[in-house]
Write a structure and sequence with these properties.
Strand order of the largest sheet of chain A: 6-7-8-3-9-10
Strand content of chain A: 25-35%
Number of helices of chain A: 8
Oligomer: heterodimer
Structural class of chain A: alpha+beta
Largest sheet of chain A: 6 strands, mixed
Largest interface: A-B, 27 and 20 residues
Number of helices of chain B: 12
Helix content of chain A: 10-25%
Order of helices and strands of chain A: EEEHEEEHHHEHEHEEHHEEEEEEEEEE
Helix content of chain B: over 70%
GO molecular function, one term (chain A): ATP binding
CATH topology of the largest domain in chain A: Rossmann fold
Distance between the termini of chain A: 33 Å
Shape of chain B: globular
Radius of gyration of chain A: 24 Å
Protein name (chain A): Spermidine/putrescine transport system ATP-binding protein
Order of helices and strands of chain B: HEEHHHHHHHHHHH
CATH class of the largest domain in chain A: Alpha Beta
CATH architecture of the largest domain in chain A: 3-Layer(aba) Sandwich
Number of strands of chain B: 2
GO biological process, one term (chain A): putrescine transport
Keywords (chain A): ATP-binding, Nucleotide-binding, Transport
CATH superfamily of the largest domain in chain A: P-loop containing nucleotide triphosphate hydrolases
CATH architecture of the largest domain in chain B: Orthogonal Bundle
Strand content of chain B: under 5%
Number of strands of chain A: 20
Radius of gyration of chain B: 27 Å
Organism (chain A): Roseovarius pacificus
């Protein structure tokens, strides 16, 4: 856990941004401490990229009450004079410069003597294991290498905040996983504040200290990765966090943090309540992860059903159960007892299911 | 077993593929040869003939087909040197003005936030000069710039001047003035194309890394637009060196350029002189281009992306 008492490196309060009649950001606030890895997660059109552009200064927000980077207010300050740099989605490397010239660009702009600038650039390249390719042309690099050059170019000027706009989007699966680890490593080494934009919940959960989930220009939920993973506050958050099963019902009883909901058709199930202010009788939804479901005997917390399909996928088997509340997807790991049996009831631990207000989709 | 079968079946297939690619290869070779031959016949051969002609002489309005250097040695007699200098001066001045005005315009057209439709309108406007014959467009200026022309009439009637301004027509000013609108599109369009190809994110990245607009311009935009600048230079300087409509119509015989010399030699049926002068103009263009490329390479080695 980072020291949250120190002055935040990045502080944004109440930013509103409109593109004509479209509201891209609606009263969004967030902050990041020094050395924190903050991820802004959202699907396309959620406003996450606009948020990044507002922070970097490439976009001027319609209104903002406070925007501070490294302790200085940057409202009205042009992008060039903000202590933050961006790693662009397509890397945006200058094609007419060599690798080392690209990295030294920010230093040359700051009138650092050429010799020193090149030395610094070499050091930054060494940090991303590319010192051997310093004199290469950008065109001679692979996607992953370009990614690293962009990274080196952005950190060489020692910004207070580094903004990363889906930097791993264009890389293949394997490389992406390697780069995730490298990015985390680099962030720790530099002790720099990273604001990372992504639409991949897996990236967000792997790398971040804190995740901000955005939707329609608003913050849907924010917290530590585990918090978002295990305690989604809404249907949208649960869906985004990969909950395969979300069933609607009505809260019939509450017992501390455990709630009991009626799914209709006589099915009454239990799960963990996300919020304490859910009144008995209010419409709620319950979210269940496929891999947390298992066959249970009669009487346990769960729901009756019949097996509809079973697809073997190697490491696991996907099973679809037809129940009174709709189809339930269940995942059974290879070798688990469920694999070769049929089941007539699926169940789960109360703490594995989350209940939240139904709300709009 | 399975793999064996695959091997068996893939062998003849590979042969077919090889055969097919051989055919396409030879076809493209033929096409290439044909295009090169056509280009050679249509463009290169006339130039060679032109060059060869410059080594003949004229006697009594007849071309004498005996090789000699007389035409070349006599070329710079009778003030031709002065004419050459004037031609270079006019052509380079016009090209530089086009570049200085055209580059910002092209940048604005390609990268400003104007709507797609206004951009289309401006591009369409740029093509208008290609619709109308150059002489027709040029002759209009006489009615505007002349002693009794539109501008003088307005200035006289409003009392700004007492006697008509005379330097506006039949002067070097008028020749420049006539050439600039005619040669604006050839300078702007290639630069516009080159700037359009610059990814906006490069400009944003430069900005993001701390560069002022001026630094972004000189370190990112201009180097990346250089191929367009070079093309614009060729398309403007060539016609400017060879221009004869504007000097003829707006120079009124006071502005003698190489083109005027070519024309009078042509009228006098002195074809070897025409040939020598034309060769000379082409040579001038090539020399100027070589100088331009050397200068560019020197001033921004990594900036020159002509590859």
């Amino acid at each position: 856990m980072k020291d949250m008492n120190a002055e935040p490196m990045l502080e944004v309060r109440d930013v509103v941004h409109k593109y004509g009649p479209v509201t891209a950001l609606s009263h969004v606030s967030l902050s990041a401490a020094k050395g924190e890895f903050l991820t802004i997660l959202g699907s396309s059109g959620s406003g996450k990229t606009t948020m990044l552009r507002v922070i970097s200064g490439l976009e001027t927000p319609t209104s903002v009450s406070c925007l501070r980077i490294g302790g200085e207010s940057v409202v009205g300050v042009p992008a060039a004079r903000r202590r933050c740099t961006t790693v662009f989605q397509n890397y945006a490397l200058f094609p007419h410069m060599t690798v080392v010239e690209n990295v030294a660009y920010g230093l040359k702009i700051r009138k650092v003597p050429t010799g020193d600038a090149l030395k610094e650039a070499q050091r930054a390249l060494a940090m991303v294991q590319l010192e051997a390719k310093a004199d290469r042309n950008i065109r001679q690099l692979s996607g992953g290498e370009r990614q690293r050059v962009a990274l080196a170019r952005a950190v060489v000027t020692k910004p207070a905040v580094l903004l990363l706009d889906e930097p791993l989007g264009a890389l293949d699966e394997r490389l992406r996983q390697d780069m995730q680890l490298e990015l985390m490593d680099l962030q720790r080494k530099l002790d720099m504040t990273f604001v990372y934009i992504t639409h991949s919940q897996e990236e967000a959960l792997t790398m971040s200290d804190r995740v901000v989930l955005m939707r329609h220009g608003r913050i849907e939920q924010s917290g530590e990765p585990l918090d978002l993973f295990d305690h989604p506050v809404s249907r949208f958050a649960a869906d985004f966090m990969g909950y395969e099963n979300i069933l609607d019902g009505r809260l019939v009883r509450r017992d501390g943090a455990v709630g009991e909901i009626d799914l209709g058709g006589g099915a009454v199930v239990r799960g963990k309540l996300i919020s304490t202010d859910l009144a008995v009788g209010s419409p709620v939804s319950i979210a269940l992860r496929a891999e947390r479901l298992s066959p249970v005997g009669p009487g346990g917390n769960g729901i009756d059903g019949t097996m509809k399909s079973k697809v073997y996928r190697g490491k696991y088997t996907d099973i679809v159960m037809e129940t009174v509340a709709g189809a339930l997807r269940m995942r059974s790991w290879h070798g688990a007892p469920m694999e070769n049996e049929t089941a007539s009831r699926v169940g789960w631990k109360e703490t594995d299911a989350v209940i939240f207000a139904k709300g709009s989709v | 077993m399975n793999t064996e079968m695959e091997n068996v079946s893939s062998a003849p297939m590979q042969a077919t593929i090889a055969k097919r690619s051989k055919i396409t290869l030879s076809f493209s070779q033929v096409a290439l040869a044909a295009i090169m031959l056509a280009w050679f016949v249509v463009v290169i051969v006339p130039l060679i003939i032109l060059f060869v002609y410059s080594f003949f002489t004229t006697e009594y309005f007849q071309t004498v087909f005996t090789p000699s250097l007389d035409t070349w040695t006599g070329l710079f007699a009778s003030g031709r040197f002065e004419v050459t200098l004037r031609t270079l001066r006019v052509a380079l001045t016009v090209t530089m003005i086009e570049l200085v005005v055209g580059f910002p315009f092209a940048l604005w057209l390609a990268k400003s936030t104007i709507s797609k439709s206004s951009r289309a309108i401006f591009l369409a406007l740029l093509t208008i000069p290609f619709f109308l014959d150059l002489s027709s467009r040029t002759i209009v200026w006489r009615a505007i710039l002349g002693q009794n022309g539109l501008i003088n009439t307005i200035l006289l009637s409003t009392g700004v001047i007492d006697s008509p301004v005379e330097w506006m027509l039949y002067s070097e000013f008028a020749v420049h003035f006539g050439m600039i609108p005619a040669l604006f599109p050839p300078m702007v369009l290639p630069i516009y194309m080159a700037i359009s190809l610059i990814d906006d994110s490069l400009i944003e990245a430069s900005n993001d890394l701390g560069a002022t607009p001026a630094q972004t311009f000189w370190r990112v935009i201009f180097p990346l637009a250089l191929p367009g600048v070079v093309a614009g230079f060729v398309f403007t300087l060539g016609p400017a060196l060879a221009a004869w409509v504007e000097p003829g119509m707006l120079g009124g015989g006071f502005v003698n350029l190489l083109s005027s010399s070519i024309e009078s030699a042509y009228t006098a049926l002195r074809y070897p002189v025409v040939a020598a002068l034309s060769t000379f103009v082409i040579a001038l263009l090539l020399v100027l281009l070589a100088v331009l490329l050397l200068v560019l390479r020197r001033f921004g080695a990594s900036g020159l992306t002509l590859r």
